[in-house]
Design a protein that fits this description.
The protein is an alpha/beta fold. It has 2 domains: about 160 residues, Aspartate Aminotransferase, domain 1 (Alpha-Beta Complex); about 260 residues, Type I PLP-dependent aspartate aminotransferase-like (Major domain) (Aspartate Aminotransferase, domain 2), CATH 3.40.640.10. About 40% of the residues lie in helices and about 15% in strands. It has 14 helices and 17 strands. The strands form 4 sheets. The chain has a 7-stranded mixed sheet, sandwiched between helices. Strands 1-2-3-15 form a 4-stranded mixed sheet. Strands 13-14-17-16 form a 4-stranded antiparallel sheet, with helices on one face. A hairpin with a 4-residue loop joins strand 2 and strand 3. The longest helix has 20 residues. The chain starts with a helix and ends with a helix.
């Protein structure tokens, strides 16, 4: 029995899928103590859009530490926070003509989701929330209550109170007018479903299997919320911060949610950080009404400011679009062409290879396991874990991106031949 098995809880997860002891990482490569090198198509589950130990961000963090910068300050005023707020307002909010207050929540995305749910109910004085089938929003009780996977909710009794799951445009529901269905439910006095305080959604259901919502659907959802006095909350934790190309994933639909949840890559360096963006008229919190000891991570402020500077100077959005074209081309021509049973979905630099038509999760797992043996870290998502989810760092160089994709192709062919 090794040290991890002896000391660590059974709840450990990713280490079971990627059984190596990692000790350093740089850019898009992770190094194991054994000497093996792995291309990273996992990127900290989306927390490492700028890769591992990004030089520009790292130097900013080191300089701050060398100067004995404040490391912990709760929600007190600090120079690090001031610089982040000013930069975020300049290059994200003002440049996009968005008017949001910024709330610093606890260090993980699920805490910002909890804050959004709590605030929505406070504002509208209604308890109900609409979420979507296939959704994933986090592992605390409120976030679990609005997540679709029954399996992950099994250990938390009573999480579904006051939550109604609506159909997302996926599978057979792609030919079903899901917005009209929600409209009908809201207008039918005998539907048994009360008007909610908010509807929370993902423009791309990442954990749900990389399901990309159509632009028209997103726009109709926004209009529906307007017509029925319902707040619209966009969970941009995994697909925000440039993952789909633009900084926010909802920009392609030209809508403005009432609240936006950000985490994962907002800190730029993998530091814990989460934000809730709130339209000013909704910011009715009393001081300290939603707090936490580690809200406002000072090192995360430094990393986030540096990431925004780098994003601006390097024209990262344009670079993501170039890599999106490569991924779309490779996956449709080199992967989907292998079998008509394979489905490809994605946008920007999040893509899914759906192999559910080959059976259960065992086939998909055989592919990702073989990928790991060949030097690629890539995870599974979707219903029954049958979708191979590509989530490389946005800054990955093209040759490494191509090599990682070639490994997936080889592993897929080997699994089909077995």
């Amino acid at each position: 029995m090794n040290t991890f098995e002896k000391c660590e809880s059974n709840v450990r997860s990713y280490c079971r899928t990627f059984p190596a002891i990692f000790h350093r990482a740089k850019d898009s490569i992770v190094y194991a103590e054994s000497g093996e090198e792995y291309i990273d198509f996992f990127a900290g589950a989306g927390a490492l859009n700028y890769g591992h130990n990004h030089d520009y961000i790292k130097q900013k963090v080191i300089s701050y530490l060398d100067a004995d910068g404040i490391a912990h300050a709760l929600d007190m005023y600090t120079s690090a926070k001031e610089k982040f707020l000013a930069k975020f307002d300049e290059v994200v909010l003002s440049s996009k003509k968005l008017d949001y207050r910024i709330q610093f929540c606890g260090p993980t995305g699920t805490n910002a989701v909890e804050a959004a749910l709590k605030l929505a109910r406070k504002v509208k004085q209604r308890s109900g929330i609409f979420s979507f089938m296939g959704a994933y929003h986090g592992m605390t009780l409120g976030s679990l209550s609005i997540s679709g996977n029954i399996g992950i909710r099994a250990g938390a009794i009573g999480t579904s109170s006051n939550v109604t799951f609506m159909p997302y445009p996926y599978g057979f529901m792609e030919t079903f007018d899901t917005i009209e269905y929600i409209e009908t439910v809201l207008n039918d006095v005998n539907s048994g479903i009360e008007k909610p305080a908010a509807i929370i959604f993902e423009t791309v259901q990442a954990e749900g299997g990389v399901v990309v919502a159509p632009v028209e659907w997103i726009q109709r959802l926004r209009n529906l919320c307007n017509e029925h006095d319902i707040l619209l909350i966009c969970d941009d934790i995994q697909v925000g911060c440039g993952r789909t190309g633009s900084f926010f994933s909802f920009e392609r639909a030209d809508i403005v949610p009432d609240m936006v949840v950000l985490s994962k890559s907002i800190s730029g360096y993998g530091f814990p950080m989460s934000l809730l963006l709130i339209k000013p008229e909704l910011d009715i919190w009393e001081p300290g009404e939603h707090n936490g000891t580690f809200r406002g991570n000072q090192l995360a402020f430094i990393g986030a400011t540096a990431a925004l500077e780098y994003r601006e100077s390097s024209h990262l959005e344009k670079d993501v679009k170039t890599k999106e074209l490569f991924l779309k081309s490779f996956l449709t021509q080199e992967i989907a062409s292998i079998s008509e049973k394979i489905a490809i979905r994605g946008i920007g630099m999040i893509w899914g290879i759906d192999v559910k038509n080959f059976g259960g999760s065992d086939f998909a797992k055989s592919i990702t396991s073989r990928c790991f043996e060949l030097g690629l870290i890539v995870e599974l998502a979707g219903r029954n874990d049958t979708v191979i989810k590509l989530l490389p760092p946005l800054v990955i160089d093209m040759s490494t991106l191509q090599k990682g994709c070639s490994i997936i192709k080889a592993a897929l062919n080997e699994s089909l031949a077995a």
